[in-house]
Amino acid sequence: xxxxxxxxxxxxxxxxxxxxxxxxxxxxxxxxxxxxxxxxxxxxxxxxxxxxxxxxxxxxxxxxxxxxxxxxxxxxxxxxxxxxxxxxxxxxxxxxxxxxxxxxxxxxxxxxxxxxxxxxxxxxxxxxxxxxxxxxxxxxxxxxxxxxxxxxxxxxx
Amino acid sequence: xxxxxxxxxxxxxxxxxxxxxxxxxxxxxxxxxxxxxxxxxxxxxxxxxxxxxxxxxxxxxxxxxxxxxxxxxxxxxxxxxxxxxxxxxxxxxxxxxxxxxxxxxxxxxxxxxxxxxxxxxxxxxxxxxxxxxxxxxxxxxxxxxxxxxxxxxxxxxxxxxxxxxxxxxxxxxxxxxxxxxxxxxxxxxxxxxxxxxxxxxxxxxxxxxxxxxxxxxxxxxxxxxxxxxxxxxxxxxxxxxxxxxxxxxxxxxxxxxxxxxxxxxxxxxxxxxxxxxxxxxxxxx
Lengths: 157, 285
Description:
The complex is a heterodimer.
Chain A: E1 2-7, E2 10-15, H1 22-29, E3 48-51, E4 54-57, E5 70-72, H2 85-92, H3 102-115, H4 121-127, H5 139-146, H6 148-154
Parallel strand pairs in A: 1-5
Antiparallel strand pairs in A: 1-2, 3-4, 3-5
Chain B: E1 8-9, H1 14-23, E2 28-30, H2 36-41, E3 50-52, E4 62-64, E5 68-72, H3 77-82, H4 84-89, H5 91-97, H6 103-106, H7 111-117, H8 125-130, E6 134-139, E7 143-148, E8 153-155, E9 158-159, E10 165-173, E11 179-186, E12 197-206, E13 209-218, E14 225-226, H9 228-234, H10 241-254, H11 265-284
Parallel strand pairs in B: 1-3, 2-3
Antiparallel strand pairs in B: 4-5, 5-10, 6-7, 6-10, 8-9, 11-12, 12-13, 13-14
Helix pairs in contact in B: 9-10, 10-11
């Protein structure tokens, strides 16, 4: 089945099985391997992407459902060669260790910051509750998201 | 990973969806996919086809009427959480919606999908039972029919839905000012975890007297259930130490929990008694 959607700002058409997981289409057909597979059942958030601005687990979305939608992956967060502020904050504040969960966290955090540019720790923890990290203990991740706005202002972004 | 090769029908309107449903009764209805995609990945199901309702705009949205709030079956949980009418009139539904998975699931999971999936552990079902929610089923031949959620489930993962029907709307009577509402979920953590026990409660008071009692439960029986024997212990009298103890004791006749991967029957019975007592004692003051 031919399915057309916007991917990181560009019109894209794929010819795939309609029930294929969006995650597999992104990674295998479109070679965007930033979105990771952790659990494959919507528990870990490593495959988080934005569909029409909303964070979703791409392992739970059949590709047929993105017809006409706008999909943004971690590869699409940076603009004009400049990292998204939350990506820069993860670097500045040690929000990543092994890195496998990081794309999912960064995308989920980007959705949150779009709704609430200066969230408190409780809001951040709730927004990121669907993402699992086995390295950091989460504090550095929460700190990174909390300091995104401040870091961006400091850097004049 | 083995992808389902089944054909997917993609209606754009309710009428088109109903006609596809009549023509392909063997096909599964697909809404947000948060349950179906997990079952597919685990090879637990192998449907011969799907009817994808995700892009049927008329199945989405929340309408507040004078007496009811009507929610389209494909309305996602984030839409419910963010809706001003739901926040005002159905605070326990909003509270329950916030415990469904986490943000990524709430952005995709739908109220109608959860009702149809018929899991005994659905977080919002106990609240919907307590609110006397009505499921509006629609078919091409017979149009709309209303079934109280309390009569919707006939057994584990079984419902009264006919092969040519779909859930179109959920209609929820607005609670009155005399209602006291409650939601309590017990699980291993706030987010993501599937519940061990869920309670949705609504007591209506006429002065000091309890005039109506609804206790909806999750994960304590083969389906979401009301504890009608316990409810009866509370009605027609003021809340008292005696009526609370009677209701808590009566629960044993209402619920039939099992041992499974998430908990044990004994733990569930004990927790159910305690969370009911805790709420009723708070209400009694």
